[in-house]
Design a protein that fits this description.
Length: 148
C-alpha cells in the first residue's frame, strides 16, 4: 500500500491511542495488516516503481508534517508516533535506494514481501483508503479537540 495511506491510517491510530508507545506499536501492526489487503502495485519496472514511490514518499512526508501541525498540542507526539510506526516498515525502500540494502532482518523483509497482493488495476483501492483513513483521522481529531 502507498506509504501516504500508511501515514493516514497511523494518524487515525495515533489520534485514537492513549499514548505514543501504544500508537507506535499499533501503527507498525497496521502496516502489515494493510499491506495484506490487495492494493495498487506490481510495477512494470524499476523506473515505474520509482516514478510512484518518490512522489508517494514526498506526499507521505508532507501529510505527516501537516497532520502533526494540526494535532492538538497535547496529542501531537502520540499522533506522530502512530504515523511513524505505520510508515516505518517501508523504510526499506529508501534504504535500498541509498545504501543498497534493507535495514530490517531478512525474515522481516521476506514476510513483508510475502504478504503483498499487488495489481496495477487497484489504484482505486488507494484512493478509497486515503479517503477513509484521512477522513476518519480528521473527524476524530476534530472531536478530540472539542473534548479538551
Ligand atoms: Zn509495506
Amino acid at each position: 500500500m502507498l506509504v501516504t495511506n500508511h501515514v493516514l491510517s497511523g494518524a487515525l491510530i495515533g489520534t485514537a491511542s492513549r499514548g505514543p508507545g501504544e500508537a507506535f506499536a499499533f501503527g507498525v501492526a497496521s502496516h502489515f495488516a494493510l499491506d495484506a489487503v490487495p492494493h495498487w502495485g506490481d510495477w512494470r519496472d524499476r523506473q515505474h516503481f520509482l516514478h510512484v514511490a518518490v512522489r508517494d514518499g514526498l506526499a507521505g512526508l508532507a501529510v505527516m508534517g501537516t497532520i502533526t501541525a494540526m494535532a492538538p498540542a497535547g496529542r501531537r507526539l502520540t499522533v506522530l508516533a502512530g504515523m511513524a510506526g505505520a510508515a516505518l516498515p517501508d523504510a526499506d525502500k529508501p534504504f535500498r535506494l541509498v545504501f543498497g540494502r534493507s535495514p530490517w532482518p531478512r525474515f522481516v523483509d521476506r514476510f513483508h514481501q510475502g504478504i503483498q497482493r499487488e495489481a496495477l488495476s487497484r489504484a482505486p483501492v488507494e484512493v478509497a483508503a486515503a479517503a477513509v483513513f484521512g477522513g476518519a483521522a480528521l473527524t476524530l481529531m476534530r472531536k478530540r479537540r472539542r473534548e479538551r
